[in-house]
Amino acid sequence: MIGQFIFPTCEVAGLRVAAYLRNTPRAAGSQSGDIGVELQVFQRGELVAHEPEFGTIPFGGVLEVSERTCAALAPVGADRLVVARCRTADGSDSYFAQEHHLSYENHRTGVFDSLLYDQLPLVKPGRRASPIILLAPKAWISADVNSFVAFANVGASAAAEPQAVPLVVSVLSADGEVLSTDTYDEPQNSALLFDVRGALRGKLGNSDAPQLVNVVARGGASMYAIMTFVVNQVTGNFALEHSLSPHYYVTEGLARVRTEALSTLHTAGAR
Amino acid sequence: MSLPSLSTAPGTFVRRVMGSRKILRWLPRNLKLGDPVLQFFLNGFGKTTRYTFVNFPSLYAPGTAHSCIYDLVLHDALGSIAGRATIEVPVAGTADVVLSDVMRTPLPELGILSARIRSPRHFDYSDRHLGTVRSFFYAAYHDQAMRSISVIHPQTAKYSSLPDRPTWRSNMLLWPSRVNSFELLLMNPTTVDAVTDLRLVAGNGEIVASSAATIPPFGSRRVVWESAPLRQYPYVSVSADMLAAPNAKPLVFLNFDNGAFSAAHS
User: Fold this and answer.
1) How far apart are CA B43 and CA B111, in angstroms?
2) B168-265 carries CATH number 3.30.870
């Protein structure tokens, strides 16, 4: 069985990443053998490091992926995508769920935050992933505070290829007004760090009181892991949380949601 | 005699008055509502709370967009209702809510907030293709001027029936050498008392700290473990003998030596 845990380095936000890959009891398909880990590191779609046998996670144990254990995660001045493929010994290509621990640290202060989420299935060759629909109503900006949304995506192969559909990211005010819209043609196997303050170009975020905005996105044609950082750029302290995909909010009509969601926002256009 | 309100569920009215479920199929109705969703409320211990409520039906189905309502109920740590509020969120909008602004009652230091979305329209089924809608929202815990901030999504809904009570161990590693203390919040999202033994477990399975207590229905508790006595262990994990409900996992704050904090669902 196999799954892949993907995450962005977020170096541009001033953070250092570490993932702690786990091998713990699972309800379905539970097994107690080792998990082998293959590691790939990409920068804007280009494979910059590949360790087919990066390590093994013993049952009940931990395998650390960080610049301490992987030289390709040392600071390079750009954000990178890390793909950890976790495979059980049975050789099957079916997916298995396993939660891993992701952590980012501000090295200046030693303050870190963590996140747990499940590894993803592999993208089947020749099958185009559905466009994403993102709602991130958790971005604050002020004179001291900024927010970033990290879009990490992985394709079916390690080749540098464009996504068939661009990613369109808008920022909405609390009243629902479209404050900005930007389009990104990110390649597969890349990590995009969306800077909310930068996108707003001075329209908000100049006061001391934090103002909430909602970052929404649609498009892309890849498998995504999306997380939001809220950073106090004076103290260096930050919050980290993953996104909630539409199936958290609604139980039916997801195909129609993918077609219709956010559509009127973008046709209305941003200033 | 007062009739049941039509504002949340016309089906409830019909069921009570006519005693028939069959007729519900023929009636127009608006959003099908999932159970209220819960998240912790903190108003002390150096932290305060704000919540964000997004009008997601209008973003998912913009062709039939209209404003939405969130009904909020705050329970104190013993589960008693400490306040109520109703928030209207405009089309494509998001409300950034501080409870002291919308509840005119004294707020507890610790509790849980229950939120449930509904449509303001009594008879509108244009959103029915969304199926059951779940009232997910975000909580932000921060100190003054957001010098530290944590953003967390809810993990559990209110249970009206008795759920399974699993034994559980978190996959999150906690490093005693890197923090000053671990601050854990635990809730009971069910209608009956829940006795839970909350533990810190070393990598070899040894229980290195534990705290058992009974949490009343819709109540919550806070447990703080200083890290200094735990520094002989490279890392520990949180576990529980029986969670009150399958996903009623603790929220874990990491308090750092410099006064900063961060938090994560475990």
Assistant:
1) 9
2) no
Quote ipTM for the complex: 0.94
Architecture of the domain whose range is A132-268: Sandwich (2.60)
Fold held by B30-154: Hypothetical Protein Tm1070; Chain: A (2.60.290)
* Nearest CB partner across the interface for A174, out of B96, B147, B260: B96
Q: Distance (Å, rounded) from C-alpha B47 to C-alpha B64?
A: 39
In whole angstroms, give the CA distance from residue A67 to residue A73.
Answer: 5
- Return d(Cα B236, Cα B181) in angstroms, integer: 12
Residue for token pair 């969670």: B243
CA nearest to B116 within chain A: A249
Nearest CA in chain B to A21: B171
**Rounded mean pLDDT of B82-111?**
97
Could you give the CA distance from residue B24 to residue A185 in angstroms, rounded to a whole number? 48
Q: Express each pLDDT in A28-38 by its tens digit.
A: 556 689 999 99
3-state secondary structure B14-50: HHHHHCCCHHHHHCCCCCEECCCEEEEEECECCEEEE
Whether A133 and B60 lie within 8 Å, measured CB to CB: yes
- Which residues on B lie below 8 Å from A62 (Cβ)? 173, 203, 235
Q: How distant is the Cα of B104 from the closest Cα of chain A, in angstroms?
A: 23
Please give the CATH number for the structural domain made up of A2-118. 2.60.290
- Convert the pLDDT of each residue in B202-237 to its tens digit: 999 999 999 999 999 999 999 999 999 999 999 999
- Quick one: tokens of A253? 């009509």
What pLDDT score was predicted for residue B238? 98
Q: Domain ranges for chain B, please list them.
A: 30-154, 168-265
